[in-house]
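Changelog entry

Holo records now carry the ligand SMILES as an explicit input line rather than a separate metadata file. Below, a converted record for adenosine-5'-diphosphate, shown in the new format.
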Amino acid sequence: MGLTLDYQEGQTPIDDDEKNELLIRTISTRSELDEFEQLGIEDAVAWLNKRRIPLHTMLTESFVKELHERMFGKIWKWAGTFRTSNKNIGVDKYLIGVELKGLLDDCCYWIDNKTFPPDEIAIRASHRMVLIHPFANGNGRHSRLYADALIHNGFGGNYFTWGGKSLIKEGEARSRYLHALRCADMTDYKPLLAFARL
Ligand SMILES: Nc1ncnc2c1ncn2[C@@H]1O[C@H](COP(=O)(O)OP(=O)(O)O)[C@@H](O)[C@H]1O
Ligand SMILES: [Mg+2]
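Structure line, unchanged by the conversion:
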């Protein structure tokens, strides 16, 4: 049984090869997939809630992968592993490791030197993460939860609100979010910072 998915603006299409690695064979629609993925994300949030994780632990490739694995590991075989195909967004598949290392090193520097306030460090990290696009799918949700982990588990602050509405479905919140990301693409982080605390 195949899975046919329709895509909204700003979503990264999943390749046929990647679709074949779906672990739950009964999923056949986008809404069933969304639901299962949401359950996985809730497991990951519960896991994060239970611990205080040192910032330097989160600034490692292994943590970045572990978070994705905890979110999507029950649904996709490739969860927690870097993508092996190029996408319409993101760096070349061979550059994911180096680019991520650059981002994590920059984050360490920002933290050690207090270059930006905590919110801005987490939001810049999230945006750079989704620009790298390390995984085949789930990069948007992973990048947002990564920012939440940095701010909550690392800095001891409140989780972000991310517009206060679901960003999975098309609508005003998602449009604002995509607009804020595009401003961040051009180094204006203010809209994304505001959106994340709306
Ligand atoms: N112009 C852009 N700049 C930065 N990030 C973007 C841009 N357009 C889309 N994105 C991000 O890419 C995500 C889509 O990637 P995808 O891997 O499908 O994540 P998810 O499955 O969690 O939605 C969007 O949710 C958004 O976070
Ligand atoms: Mg997607």
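Spot-checked after migration. The mean pLDDT is 94. The pocket of magnesium ion (ligand 2) is lined by residues 11-12, 137 (CB under 6 Å).
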